[in-house]
Each structure stands twice: as structure tokens, then as C-alpha cells.
Amino acid sequence: KPILIPILGDQLTRSLASLKGRSKDESVILMMEVWDEATYVKHHKQKIALIFSAMRHFAVDLRDAGWTVDYTFLTDEENAHSFTGEVARAVERHDPSAIHITEASEWRVQQAIDQWQDKFACEVRVLPDDRFICSIGQFRDWAEGRKTLRMENFYQEMRKQTGLLMDDGKPAGGQWNYDKENRKPPKDGLKAPPRPRSEPDEITAEVIALVEDKFADHFGDLDTLKWPVTAAQAETAAEAFFNERLPEFGAYQDAMVHGQDDLFHSMLSTSINLGLLDPMELCQRAEREYREGNAPLNSVEGFIRQIIGWREYVRGFYWFHMPDLESTNALNAQRALPDFYWTGKTDMRCMADAIRSTKQNAHSHHIQRLMLLGNFALLAGINPRDVQDWFLVVYADAFEWVELPNVAAMALYADGGKLASKPYAASANYINKMSDYCKGCKYSASTKTGEGACPFNALYWHFMDRHRDTLESNHRIGRIYSNWDRMGEERQADYIESADRFLETLEPAKKGWARYQD
Ligand code: FAD
Ligand code: DLZ
Predict the structure, then answer these.
(1) Domain count within the chain
(2) What is the ipTM for the molecules in this complex?
(3) Phi–psi pair at 463, nearest 5 degrees
(4) Where is the segment annotated Disordered (predicted)?
């Protein structure tokens, strides 16, 4: 009897835990395109096409390597359209001695897998996903009993554990974190070398046609799909990043430039999340670039921090706080998501550009996600459920384990400060400093209230004022209230009225963008 090895859409790694040590002759790999996964939210068209194409390419790759792969296509007539239903059908077909699966990255999927032992007569073995450097259990051990969880402390542990950028037990260059050297404003005409684009082959073209046919009313452009769909393509993309963009990555990590969608970012998140690239190998490679003198420490440390710091931290945080994290709303934000998040129709030039990139590329870079799209939602008091749905739908790299902590906890402070020490709230001043958006905008960044003022200005003080009870005691933010108090009642009222007037103009999103059952 064979061992049945289901491989999920974000487990496309030859050295996956459930494949390690398995004999090709005695294993059947099961891969499943299922309606339930393609529609639990109405994913961006590119995201579905990317995942299906990468799955189909991986199945070919496994077969070429001698594995037996049982692959369910979305259009197969008998498709049960859920993971559990498809595993049940495969159990009938193959009568396996056991099912071995690598733990799911998402809570929702793992909940279903946890039922399998009661459903199926054979043994069900769930293996830890060792593509992550810190296991779920290790994070729990680290987190339990701590009064506050902070990425920086976790990150230092990860540096010590991995030995990355360590010299005789000390951080390379003497500091753990070069964040202060990651905030260079963009100079005029800042441009990065273009990244390699993976042109669709026959498999991808077929998938694109399928998505056009079955998911026509989902958000996003499809003809611009250029994400790597194989490990080899992802490797080409990584190579170009290390050779051409890593040296400037650090300095311009927080910069935003109109129409420059990638800047010096790696654009590797889809490949890492799907399993096409190994995060630890990428970090080792980045370190080599530093040791060989090809890239400065602020770039290399910044890149490594994003991966063994933030990426591992949010993953551990997600499992530590699920399922509560999904419904947390510490600031009691109740406003509906504005329609312009879907249409891009707003006079705020920065928001329009970030949404355009989101629609066109199924991607926007970190600082656009955090300090534009997230910041606006935070200041305007958009309810976390709507914002989470939007972020889960629109990005090709969005899987709940990484999307939810970034959105609910980092961007919206909906966890009340478990992840971040203060809300990432900013007015137009920040956006103007870190981007070229404000120059060509209908609104003026320097005008604080009234006609023509950038909405971020009044919204910022509206937010601070309405959450004073919660935020004033926060030592990282509390002192801004003395600025507020110094303004006097008339000026304060001006800010509040300006923000209220703007908030009244926001049209709530039409139903049906994010979920079928809206
Ligand atoms: P780079 O800037 O080149 O960074 C290198 C790598 O570091 C990324 O590929 C990614 O793997 C990792 N990384 C960087 N920041 C984070 C972070 N905050 N959390 C986890 N990993 C990080 N990332 C996702 O992969 N999926 C998401 O759904 C997602 N949603 C986000 C939502 C919000 C509100 C915010 C603020 C951030 C979100 N991020 C998400 C993190 C980050 O924005 C993306 O990983 C990054 O923009 C991907 O582009 P890149 O590969 O060019 O990243
Ligand atoms: C996101 C997604 C989509 C759209 N479709 C599939 C699919 O048909 N089959 C599959 O195996 N995975 C898919 N995924 C990824 C899963 O929803 C999910 O993110 C992973 O299984 C992680 O738990």
C-alpha cells in the first residue's frame, strides 16, 4: 500500500518535510485544485493563475523526478472541491497505508486537516513545516510568559540561532539593526533596474484562460501576470535582485515613487510563500554579498531582518494568537471600506497609485501597504474585517498567516498593541517626505485643514483625538498630545470638522468584491 502525500498550493518545494525520506516507489503525491480554496475570498485573478500555474509546473517537475503525482484539475467532473473531499476520493483510489502531510500554513486549512484522523481509517501524520526557521512550538515557548512580544527581541534570537551576520557571537558591524539607515527619501528621478519578467508558457496560458472563464468577476488584471511559476524562474528573479538591486535595497526600503512599482524591493514574496525559493538560502546568499563586499550592511541586514525577523515573527504571532486574531478590533473601528480601494478612483495621488499597482501587479511594496493603504484605513477607522478581506484578496503573496498579522496587528493596531509598540499612524508630512506623490497631487500636503488640504492631515488628528484614552499613556506616542493641546479649541475643532466632512464623502464599497456571499 502506498503512502498518500497531499501537497498544498503553497508547499511547492522538493525538499518538503512530507517528501523527505520517502521512497518514490511507495508514495503517491496528491495535488488538488479546488473551488473552496479558489473562492473562500475572491482572490485577485493573478493570484489564482499564479498558484494554479505553479502547482501544475511543480507536478510536472515531480513527475520528471520520478514521483507518482495524482493531480485534480479544477474542471475535473468528479472534483469534490475541498481538500478533505479530494483526499477522501484519493483514499478510495489508492487505499493508502498512511497519509503524510506537511502542516498547513493557514489555521483554516489546518483545522480541516485535524479532522482527517477521525475520518480516514489509515494513519494521518502531520509534519512540521521546516521551511520556517522557527517552529510554531518554538515561538510559543519564546512568547509564553512575556509581557510584550517585540520583533526586535525575537529577531536577535533568530540571528543567534542561524548565525546569520554574526561575528564571534556579536552582530556584524556592532549593531543588530540598521533600520535608521533604511529610510532615505527618494531623490528626483529615482529608478531601479527592471526585474526579469517570466513570460507565460503553455501551462500558464491555459491557466489564464481558465481564470478568465471561471473567475471573470474577480478583482485585478490578468494580462500583466509575470510572476515566477517555477523554481528556476524564481531563481532567475533572485539572481537579478542580488546582482542589481540589493545594494540600494536598504537605503530606499521606505521610499515611494509614483509609477515605480518595484523600486529596489526583491519582489520575491510570492516565490518564497509558494515554496519556490528557500528563505534561509536567500538570507545566506544575501550575507555572502555583504562578506564579499558587493552590498552594504544596511541593505543586507535589512533584507535578512525582513525574512528571519518580520516574516518568522508574524508567522509565529499568527499561530500564537489564532483564532482570536481574526476578530480582534481593539479600537472598535466600524466604518465600511471605501469603494475607492477597489476602483482606485480617488484624488489622493498616493492611494490611487498604490491601488493601480495592486490591480495591475497583484503587488504593492511594504511601505505602500503599511503607510498608505493601512495607514488610511487606521486613521479613517475602517473595520478590520473589511480591511483584512481586501488585503487577502488583492495581493498575489497573500496567505492568511502573513496577511492577518500584518493587517490586523501591524497596520490597524486592532490587537491593541500585542505586535507593535504603537500604531503606524502618519499625516501627509511623512508621505511627502518619503515619496514624490504630493508634488502632482490635487491635495496640498502642507495645508492642514479645509479646501484642498491633504485628507491624511485632518484624519491623523481625528484619529489621535478619538483614541486619546487608549494612546495617551503610550510612551512612544503620548507626547504628541501636548502639541494637540497647544493648538487650542478653535484649531482642534477645525481639524475635527475637516476630517468629518471628508469621512462623509467616502462611499462604502459595493457588495461582492471580496466574497461571493457578501
Ligand atoms: P521585500 O521588501 O523585498 O522584502 C523581502 C522579503 O521579506 C519579502 O519577500 C517577504 O518575504 C519578507 N517580508 C518583508 N516584510 C515582511 C512582513 N512585514 N511580514 C512578513 N514578511 C515580510 N507579505 C506577504 O508575503 N503576504 C501578505 O499578504 C502581506 N500582507 C501585508 C499587509 C500589510 C498591511 C503589510 C504592512 C505588509 C504585508 N506583507 C505581506 C509584508 C510585505 O509588505 C511584503 O512581504 C512585501 O511587500 C513583498 O514584496 P517583496 O518581496 O518585494 O519584499
Ligand atoms: C490560494 C489557493 C488557491 C486560490 N487555490 C488553491 C488550490 O486550488 N489548491 C491548493 O492546494 N491551494 C490553493 N490555494 C492555497 C490554499 O488556499 C492555502 O493557502 C494553503 O493550502 C495553505 O494553507
Answers:
(1) 3
(2) 0.99
(3) -65, -50
(4) 167-199
